[in-house]
Amino acid sequence: MADGIALDAYVKETLLSIVKAVIAAQDDAMCGGFIGRAAYGGANAPKDESENVVTNVSFDLATTVEDRGTTGGAAGVKVIPFIKADVQSQVQSAHSTVSRIAFTVPVAIPRPKAQRDEDARREADERAQWERDTQMINNRDSGY
User: Spans of biased composition, class Polar residues (predicted)?
Assistant: First the structure.
């Protein structure tokens, strides 16, 4: 059986790569402000406590646990690579079982800085308008 990458390393690197790529794309002067934007006032989109949209990253992987019959070998669950270009001349007896594992990890996609700033300004404007409206109602009710 061809060597694979450890499952934990594969998932970690995949998730980090996705978030790092989104952040890097947000730095693009022409289009970055459109990447990772959260819908303003959208009640249906799941968000984290910082109002970042949460999306699910789904994994559907072929994995193997292999017993090579040697001591000191790396143990654990490995993700099976689709293509393996090298040829190994070492002969070993190996017993392995291939399994399929599927799971989903929620990931918060950070909003671009411009959107965070715009959302803060909009929320401050709405709060100020609410305070003006409340003051007007209180003044009307008290006869001023």
Answer: 135-144
